[in-house]
Design brief:
The protein has about 400 residues and is an alpha/beta fold. Helices cover about 40% and strands about 20% of the residues. It folds into two domains: about 120 residues, 2-Layer Sandwich (Enolase-like, domain 1), CATH 3.30.390.10; about 270 residues, Enolase-like C-terminal domain (TIM Barrel, Alpha-Beta Barrel). The strands form two sheets. Strands 4, 6, 7, 8, 9, 10, 11, 12 and 13 form a nine-stranded mixed sheet that branches. Strands 1, 2, 3, 5 and 14 form a five-stranded antiparallel sheet that branches. The mean pLDDT is about 95. The structure holds calcium ion (CA).
Length: about 400
Amino acid sequence: MPRIARIRAHVLEAPLSEPFAWSFTETSTRGSCVVEVTTEDGLSGWGECIGPARLNAALIPAYARMLVGQDALAVDRHWLAMYNGLRDQGMKGLALTALSGVDVALWDLRGRHWGEPVWRLMGGRFRDRVAAYATGTYRRGDGWRTLEARRTEARFGGGDPDALTLETLQYLVDEVTGYAAEGFRAAKLKIGFGVDQDIALIRAVREALGPRIGLMLDANHGYDAIDAIRLGRAVADQDIGWFEEPVVPDDLDSYVEVRRGQPIPVAGGETEFTRWGFREVLTRRAMDIVQPDICACGGLSEAKKIADMATAFGVRLVPHVWGTGIGLAAALQLHAVLPPSPPRHDPTEPVLEFDRSEHPFRQAVLAAPLEHQHGVVHIPDGPGLGVEIDVEAIARWRVELVG
Ligand code: CA
């Protein structure tokens, strides 16, 4: 029986060449908490936590104390021990993002121990490749700040704030058409900056893309229900795949209102946690598409349970992915086992979120990058997550080691 000897958190961080922003905040760095679980016989499994890396890392020693010395293969027992250990103060948020990193590392370890990919240990795969959609279109440079300042000036000075939009945001239209030229069949546009400027941008992007490329919207909960419904109705004729995080995640009643009030399918769930959190989303029919993040919702163990629940409720599931190649590899393992729902000769396939925004060590942590070819990503066959970790790269980007 392989016993857990050590659990460590590697805090990785890198500055960006240019800060970027989404609806409610901005960043000038990319960071990640990478979790390494090592057995007494020297095998290592790797996982990742989404969210503030140092805060995630600070919780890892608490989980390590529960697990060190135990059977490394008892994944379900460890999940429950960790969840129950912090349950009273940690049913959502950082307690779960940190737990997710440990759970993913335990699955990687389990696969490496048996010499099998996670997808085989989870019941076998339905697919060996997945179509990716491009995530990007963050606001960059100071152009968007200039726009916001000029809009405010116009608003209070009697001018037309929306006349300024397109000349300032043309670089986003160019970015999306670039993804189509690269071979992606779909891309996601960041909105949530103001209804009228968003409508103008969406129309400009759709016109530049033409009708054959999928276009989804992500407001990063920048709206309330009134604004989200107005936007959804205004762009209903633009063939939008889904409207992601229209409103704040802790207000499911507003989600329900947005679903009822406008015709675009509503997506969300990247900041929802565990089967119990998604139970509320599903029973209230708050979303058409749920997007659990494996590195947040409770790891691969919990993501599989949530996927099975979504099937029972007839709700589509498209995992959220926004980390390094480790999180991407974990997502690919889940993609392999997502059942067609419903089965048919040519079923609706899950699509892979493929973040194209700047990330200095996204692929560098892997010995071989997980790249797309013409918008398609192959699901690795190797043991565990199916990827080898470049431990020298981990050390190069590391700013703190915990445990
Ligand atoms: Ca999102």
